[in-house]
Amino acid sequence: MFTFRASFALRASKRTFATVSHGEPNFRIPVIDFSNFRSANSPTEKKQTADEIVSAFKDSGFIYLANHGIPSETVKTAFMKSKEFFALPQHVKDSLAWEDPRSNRGYVKIGRERVTQSADLAEIAALRRKAPDFKESMEIGRDWDSEWKNQWPQETDTPVFKRTMLDFYQTCHELHVHVMRSIALGLDLEESFFDDKINDQCHNMRLLSYPPVWRAVLEGEGQARAGAHSDYGTLTLLFQDSVGGLEAKNPHTGRFLPAPPIPNTIVVNVGDLLARWSNDVLRSTLHRVVAPPATKINDTEILTPARQSIAFFCNPNFSAEVSCLPNCGKEAKYPPVNTGDYIVGRLAVTYS
After folding, report:
1. Are strands 307-314 and 302-304 parallel, antiparallel or unpaired?
2. How does pLDDT run across 102-129, given as a tens digit for each residue?
3. Which are the contacts of 296, defined by CB distance < 8 A and separation ≥ 6?
4. Per residue in 315-350, pLDDT tens?
5. Rounded CA gap, 272 and 233, in Å?
6. What is the 8-class DSSP label of residue 70?
7. What is the distance between the alpha carbons of residues 96 and 250, in angstroms, rounded to a whole number?
8. CA 268, CA 187: separation in Å to the nearest integer?
9. What is the pTM of this model?
10. Sheet containing 235-240: which strands, arranged edge to edge?
11. Which position among 9, 159, 186, 255 has the lowest Cβ density within 10 Å, counted as fewest Cβ atoms?
12. Percent of the chain topping pLDDT 70
């Protein structure tokens, strides 16, 4: 196991949803070889890897997952098809627009979303007007849902896009199941504890495009490619390109630490519902996307390069009740919550 480590000076902050901690200022994002779990030669070896994962999630809420079982060509194909989608004419993408937080499917144009930790509608609206997130996205859910349908482009516009994304969605779900099994073992639960609580595949796969942008645009007050936020569900699987820009907040100091791309790894972080499930034993950490190194065009203009990523937001079944686990602390910090109500409520205040 390798680690990415840094320490920073104190800076106070206000947070609403992500886990708060005080203590050791060092911040670690370990690289964990997941083949030691998936292909373990013994229960002891499997438990050791599970303990490493849970330890990292207690400390920083983030890991790099290596040897995760998803072929690099599969990821490369998903990125290629994502790039093809975002290259479509704007009017074609707009015809597939995101419409409802209960569905959470469709195209989100630049400026429509403003991720934040605030729960105040007026404050979020002001942030969206002043400093919207400079990105566009395509949101994809399970395709067999009886009520909410995905917004697919025409096959002639992006051949094999739908098939590629559905296959990738299933691949990511299967990895999610394995990682949740490792977390169960690391929390001294039965390995299958979460299986019947995540099998409805109520996830959200987000294709992300961060277009080239003048650095001056991103240097405005409160402006970022994606503002500081925590995620809503159990885990997020983040596939990055080589450009970078992801930063995670050291919960001990309040400073942001770059989480640079490491080839053939997936960045995995804990979401708010898993932190809540674990009674804050596992940490939901604030993170953001900032401008990577830019290209100087002339004496006055600097251009930040385009960036691509795919985020797979893993969720419990929307019918599941998330209650603090009895083996995670003496007293529950949170009342039980319905997954669907919680996630839809968070989404409803995020979009205009």
Report:
1. unpaired
2. 889 999 998 755 444 444 545 444 444 4
3. 302
4. 999 999 999 999 999 999 999 999 999 999 888 776
5. 6
6. -
7. 37
8. 17
9. 0.85
10. 2-6, 27-33, 62-66, 265-270, 235-240, 307-314, 204-210, 136-140, 106-108
11. 9
12. 78
